[in-house]
Write a structure and sequence with these properties.
With 162 residues, this protein is of the alpha/beta class. The protein contains three helices and seven strands; from the N terminus they run αβαβββββαβ. Strands 5-6-7 form a three-stranded mixed sheet, covered by helices on one side. It is globular and about 50 Å long. The N and C termini lie far apart (46 Å). 13% of the residues are buried.
């Protein structure tokens, strides 16, 4: 991933003046490497939080970790969604339910024909009690690199416009 390190550093440089930046590092050596890269560009270390997580998944942003706090700065409840039990056919990786789309009346939930589909649907339904969860089988879409949230754009209207 050294070929994209400059991109990550530039993004962190731009974000750090206005907000804390949370970075997932594979291990302590990787954290130190990242800190060195940022220091070489004078990115203030007090604006960076690190999470050590042994993963090689560059798409971890789609599945974890999520750093969300309410207006009082209190961390929000973390709700975990499963991955599919089986690998998605043709990809040899598990499918994620995280990349769903929240609309005004419904939530479009990616499903895969997997035994965890129903479990994910219940969890998401509990998160959005006023909306109907619509399962969309994305097994044929998944190999093309986009999921429901990736290929849609939110344009919700207020209740008065419904």
């Amino acid at each position: 991933m050294t070929d994209v390190e400059d991109i990550w550093v530039r993004m962190t440089e731009a974000l750090a003046p206005g907000e804390k930046v949370h970075i997932v590092a594979y291990d302590e050596a990787h954290r130190q490497h990242i800190a060195s890269l940022l220091a070489s560009r004078s990115v203030p270390s007090d604006r960076i939080d690190y999470l050590l997580a042994p993963t090689d998944d560059s798409w971890a942003r789609d599945t974890w970790p999520i750093f969300v706090k309410n207006a009082d700065g209190v961390p929000c409840q973390i709700v975990e969604l499963p991955l599919t039990k089986k690998n998605v056919a043709g990809l040899e990786i598990k499918g994620s339910y995280i990349n769903y789309y929240v609309a005004n009346a419904v939530v479009l939930l990616p499903v895969y024909g997997d035994e965890n589909d129903a479990r994910a649907q219940k969890i998401v339904a509990d998160l959005y009690p006023g909306r109907t969860v619509v399962p969309i089988n994305v097994a044929k879409l998944y190999p093309h690199g986009g999921m429901i949230h990736c290929i849609t754009q939110q344009q919700p209207v207020s209740d008065s416009e419904l």
